[in-house]
Amino acid sequence: MTQAARTAFGEGHPLAEAYVQILATRGIEWGLIGPREADRLWDRHVLNSLAMVPFVPDGATVVDVGSGAGLPGIPLAIARPDLTVTLLEPLLRRFNFLVEAVAELGLGDRVAVVRGRAEEHKATYDVVTCRAVAPLERLVGWCAPLFLPAGELLAQKGSSAQAEVDAASADLRRRHLTARVLEAGGDTFIVRVRPTR
Fold first, then answer.
1. What is the CATH number of the domain that holds 78?
2. Looking at the domain assignment, is residue 15 inside a domain?
3. Which long-range contacts (CB under 8 A, 24 or more apart) does 170-177 make?
4. Treating both helix axes as pointing N-terminal to C-terminal, what angle do 92-105 and 13-22 enclose, rounded to 10 degrees?
5. How much is the pTM?
6. How many domains does the chain have?
């Protein structure tokens, strides 16, 4: 673990280390993480997931859509013990992985794992997060019911962030939503989608 990781996770750094160990073993064995990603788990996946931390309000309820191996939901929950996080994942193998990981990390009191698709999920949250799930236009269609009327979507994107916002502009207007690209460092951007105020 690097000093940057220790600083980012604070008192939660032992949990973050345990999570990276789960990703490096079972995550690869179960096909959720590519074998070539093992040496890049910290920087490319776990620390990168923390790009959202400054944008999530204190004490928020969060749903991580298409959570996969738990990114960004599990790192967010470890770094921000004030959050209540739901990991929403439709695929059984990934769901089972998440259930085991949350139990092993002892996060069950504030991290729930739900099997299902965003468009079928009926709860609402303060914040919807997603990382590498789908283009913004599709995400908004799936996720708007999960954060309306007063929450927001934080979609982690790469250099295509502004192009995705531009492509979704008509749909955003139709839904009375606004989108803004927030710089999160390096080539990571967060697209924040909120109701028009």
1. 3.40.50.150
2. no
3. 171/137, 171/140, 171/141, 172/140, 175/140, 175/144, 177/140, 177/144
4. 150
5. 0.94
6. 1
